[in-house]
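Board notes, transcribed. Complex of a protein with NDP.
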Amino acid sequence: MTIRLDGKQTANSMMATLKTEITALKAKGVTPGLAVVLVGDDPASAIYVRNKQRRAEELGINSVRRTLPKSATQAEVLAEVATLNQDPSIDGILVQLPLPSQIDENAVIEAIDPAKDVDGFHPLNVGKLWENMPRIIASTPFGIMALLEHYHIDVAGKHAVVLGRSNIVGRPMAALLLNHDATVTIAHSKTQNLFAITKQADILVVATGQAEFITADAVKPGAVVIDVGMDHNAAGKLVGDVDYASVAPVASAITPVPGGVGPMTIAGLMTQTVALAKRRVHE
Ligand SMILES: NC(=O)C1=CN([C@@H]2O[C@H](COP(=O)(O)OP(=O)(O)OC[C@H]3O[C@@H](n4cnc5c(N)ncnc54)[C@H](OP(=O)(O)O)[C@@H]3O)[C@@H](O)[C@H]2O)C=CC1
Ligand SMILES: Nc1nc(=O)c2c([nH]1)NC[C@@H]1CN(c3ccc(C(=O)N[C@@H](CCC(=O)O)C(=O)O)cc3)C=[N+]21
């Protein structure tokens, strides 16, 4: 029987713990504050922003959104970040990616105070993760590790193949799996014999942004398959990067889309926002 890795349910149980922690923080006069900067109208970002806002409200996290038009200048985005860096009520700052092409993404990420970089994208936090001295970890890989732990799936010694090498997902995922003693292969659009490699994976994490790209013939029987994709198929339906119908019977465990990695990303973000807010108590 294939295990359906239920991110929705796992995220809900993480929320219950967080709620208790937030109540304790509030009793000490600290309300966790999360700022989301959204520039333009990326569809995956729109889903993320909506679901985050809802979760933050449920938990009593102070979630503020700064929306800028698609035409915003780099100076305008940097000014927004600078204001949030200075705001003592804000513990975590997240700039939704991708940014419109006129804006230098790296410059914006580097402008975020690394102590408030709740996404873990600042070079300091990236470096610490690769040193296996993690501070803040990107929410999606963090959420995926939490999901694997929840289902008692141990990655140590296993061959993990990460398909995709973005700063948001692929790279931090590979670092985290390596930190947990997996043997890691990172594959991407230039990889030769791609499916011969994915077929070797005990743990296959797919983050390509290509709808239903991975089918059963690319998967080793018994593999654990993690689908990060938030894509729309030809019919306009939300699907992942994995063809769930064909892959599920082959896998030992698999995440659905929706209800898999997405809710875990949000749970990861909320967990790290609360962790950042806790520092205010000790100051
Ligand atoms: N559920 C969640 O929480 C989240 C979901 N997402 C979703 O995950 C997906 C990936 O996001 P993100 O990492 O930001 O995407 P990017 O577009 O930044 O990166 C995609 C990666 O996949 C590789 N790739 C693309 N096409 C192929 C191919 N045909 N064969 C092999 N490799 C390929 C690219 O290779 P190369 O580097 O060579 O170009 C690149 O490294 C998207 O659907 C996104 O919406 C993203 C973040 C969080
Ligand atoms: N700086 C930054 N950090 C990110 O982590 C980031 C980003 N930018 N840009 C966009 C992508 C995309 N992303 C999603 C997270 C959760 C869902 C999510 O909640 N998914 C639900 C969808 C359910 C529904 O349809 O509402 C699910 O899979 O069940 C979707 C997408 C984070 N990203």
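The pocket of NDP (ligand 1) is lined by residues 44, 140, 163-166, 168-170, 188-190, 194, 207-210, 228-231, 261-262, 265 (CB under 6 Å). The chain has a mean pLDDT of 97.
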